[in-house]
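protien #1 (seq + structre)
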Amino acid sequence: MKNWTNSLFSAYYKQRYRQIIRMIEHPHDLQTAVFQDLISSARRTKWGKQFDYATINSPKEFTQRVPLQDYEDLKSYINRMMHGEPNVLWKGQVNWFSKSSGTTNDKSKYIPVSKENFRKCHIKGTWDTMTLFYHHYPESKIFAGKNFLLGGTHDPFPAYPNSRVGDVSALMIEHMPIVAKPFFVPAFEIALLKDYEKKIELLAQTAIADDARDDITMIGGVPTWVIVLFRRILEITGKSNMLEVWPNFECYIHGGVSFEPYKEQLQQFFPSPKVAYHEVYNASEGYLAVQLDKENEGMLLLLDNGVYYEFLPMEEWGKEDAKTIPLEAVEVGKNYALIISTNGGLWRYMIGDTVSFTSTYPYRIRITGRTQQFINTFGEEVMVSNTDKALAQTCRTLDASVVEYTVAPIYFSGEEKGGHEWLIEFEKAPANLERFTDLLDKNLQKINSDYEAKRYKDMALTRLRVRSLSKDTFLNWLRHKGKYHNQSKIPRLANHRNYVEDILSFEGEMI
């Protein structure tokens, strides 16, 4: 019965793969169709009337008439939607809102998720993910077993209980297609628990139950929290790795943060080349990209899922009259801030992520960081992708592994030169921290020529500094900040010292 069911899913994914090929071969036609559908659908909304969508006939007119938006620009409109007002940013009434914290900022963002956004973007993205996975792993038995849920939570909006707010993972669980529900564990009431410490314990107990162990074939989630769960499972069972617990495990779906710093840890949990690691870009705002194949770097940009894309070149960041470029004008290797318009009611919205293209046929992207997460205090233009790669290379060379890290500038002070300070929590500490620091600095110079130029003979910047933090410092800091849940992420880079000083102060209080 299980193999028969898996064969049905496999056959269905073969049919869906034709849509992926069409998207690769006709990217601009599909984006034009998405654009026209979005403008047509929203022309009778308050927003559409404000900008006279009825007379917009081209992307050029759209970009000339509608300014770039950040969350603060749309906040009052979204608030009206959360209080039940229909036809504001999107047609009809929107009842679901994805709660996004992005980093560990105190302010939450509430992203509208319409019925169309659920069906044609988020859920469609999950189907696209499995379509590509089964195409490259045709012998997969994912749906002969169970997929393990590591979800968030959602609640009624106090001022208007018909509206609900929560993590995008929780919203997707609630809107999971009926046909898919039998293939997931644990029970939804466990997956959606608010108390995350209690949830981890119940998830661990479910994961090792006799009726589940041989069935678990896949899990998805942010690496930080997946690792927390795996540690607890191994602690309870006394096993040395997760394949001793889940012998038929095949795939880990990851996204939200770079996989580089966590790769070796996950491979230790699953010491088999048969286990696949599949990257997705499923943001609160939409399901935007998915790993296309095993061989090539970058994720396939999903161009027919209700999202119209624009790209803001790095040299335009921060300008009042910043000019975006369309998909057909992007270049491989350049950094762009991602701008999206969606079937959830976001218009020319600066999502906050930065991407670069690894190819333009097909359109593959990789996430390079956040528009608010970089260090350019001294003109070094260091992005998260740089630090992730340098750290991963250093760990491989010196047989170390990292749980979490964050980096901040060290400002000029008197006669002292500036530099970078890294706070690192090691899973496996290097034998010699001084040697690790030296190699990390050299690797970062190899990756980033601007940083290398500033480091030349210590003329502008001194060698970076590394502080090794005690076990669980970052998780305890998140708990202290009220951010202990599966959507929270450690800010990798900041052009200020606020996070670093707060973490160091917190660690000092805990000692």
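ok now protien #2
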Amino acid sequence: MARTTIYFSLLTAVLLAGAFASAHADVYRWVDKHGVVHYSDEWRPGATRIITATGTARGSSGAASAPAPSVASEDQEANRQIQRAADERAVQAAEAKLRAKRCKQAKSVYQRLIFARRLFTTGKNGQRHYMSDAEANAARVKARAIMNQFCGTHSGA
């Protein structure tokens, strides 16, 4: 008899726990900064409520909306977001590569201007026009500004 009471108590506890859990059955979906889709029973900023205790889908505002989207459409959206993030990283990598190339070129020009004994410009017919000290200094200042633009102010030149 005591054993039956224990089983009955355990069964009652499990049923009550299930009843309380279903009362808080809201499920939220969100995508992190790396494009990974997460599901949770706790709301987070940017999360969308997809399943409520009544089984209907809701938006983040809490108003009832259409039924929850299918898993396939959620997967497609997640894949689009992952692809978008990968594209953004590829663009950032290409921009960084171009910036590094321009920085290297700007440093090279600046170094040549600093270490050159005499600076000159070449005219239309190929004749050289040697710069005065003031013109040479202005060219060096301009080259350093360009180098700082592409390399940052701590370019180490």
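Confidence is low (pLDDT under 50) at residues 55-65.
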